[in-house]
Structure formats: C-alpha cells, structure tokens
Amino acid sequence: MIKKLLSPLPTALVFLLAFSLAPSIGAPVDGNSDDDDDALEHEQARLALEQGLVRPLEEIIAEARKHVQGDLIEVELEREDGRYIYELEFIQPSGQIIELQLDAKSMAIIEDDAD
Predict the structure, then answer these.
(1) Beta strands 83-91 and 109-114: pairing type?
(2) Radius of gyration over alpha carbons of the chain, in Å?
(3) Beta bridge mates, 84
(4) Region of residue 76 (left: phi > 0; alpha: psi -120 to 50; beta: else)
(5) Rounded-to-integer distance, Cα 103 and Cα 87, Å
(6) Is the pLDDT of residue 29 over 90?
(7) Is the pTM of this model over 0.90?
(8) Per the database record, which ranges form the PepSY domain (predicted)?
(9) Which residue has the higher pLDDT, 27 or 62?
C-alpha cells in the first residue's frame, strides 16, 4: 500500500512527508516548536537531492524491496561521517522488524538488521 501511495508523488513531496511524519515531542518552553528544525531538515534534504548527493526516495525504496519483503513503516534520511544514509524499516508478515540502511547516493546496503 505504501508503494502505491509513494510512486505517483513528486520526490520533493516524499521528502517532506518522510521528515514530517514523526510527531513533535515536548515543544520548548519559549513557545518555539521543533518546526524550525524540521524546516531546516527539509531544506537540507531538498538541496542534497538537487546537488545529486542523494537518490530520490522512490529509487531507494525500489532497491530496498529487492532485499527485504514486508510493509515499509518508517524512513529516515541521516548524515553520518560525511555521507547521507537512508534508514528504512519494514515489518514482516511474522511481525519481525527489519531495518535496512542504504548509502543515499550509491544505494549500496550498509547494514541489514533484524530486530
């Protein structure tokens, strides 16, 4: 079902959705929320895509599905050691959670964890 929802959406919108799905927890007392941080993350992801530092999310999901079966339940884009990494979590029909980490530019599998 997620695959059907993601395929027609523009890549930029997919990035926005991926970063905005997590609820804000505990807004700061001064009245500012985490919205500023979210906006910065969205902008950084958009720029990384435009600069060719990351592949479109649709391509990453297609590559991940070659290695993992199940429903996609979470996607994160992180920067570690100077490179971008997509972290995708899938839930298997058995209920097992599989986390797959892919290099965001080369789409090489970095890590495949079964929780």
Answers:
(1) unpaired
(2) 15
(3) 79
(4) beta
(5) 9
(6) no
(7) no
(8) 56-110
(9) 62
